[in-house]
Amino acid sequence: MITWRRLGEPDFPLLGQWLAQPHVARWWYQEHSAEAVRRDFGPAAAGLDHSEDHLAFLDGRPFGLVQRCRLADEPVYLAELSALTDVPPGAMTIDYLIGDARLVGQGLGPRMIGSILRKTWTDHPEATCVLVPVVAANRASWRALEKAGLTRIAQGDLEPENPIDDRLHYVYRIDRPARP
Question: Where in this chain does the record put each Acyltransferase MbtK/IucB-like conserved domain (predicted)?
Answer without folding.
Answer: 5-52
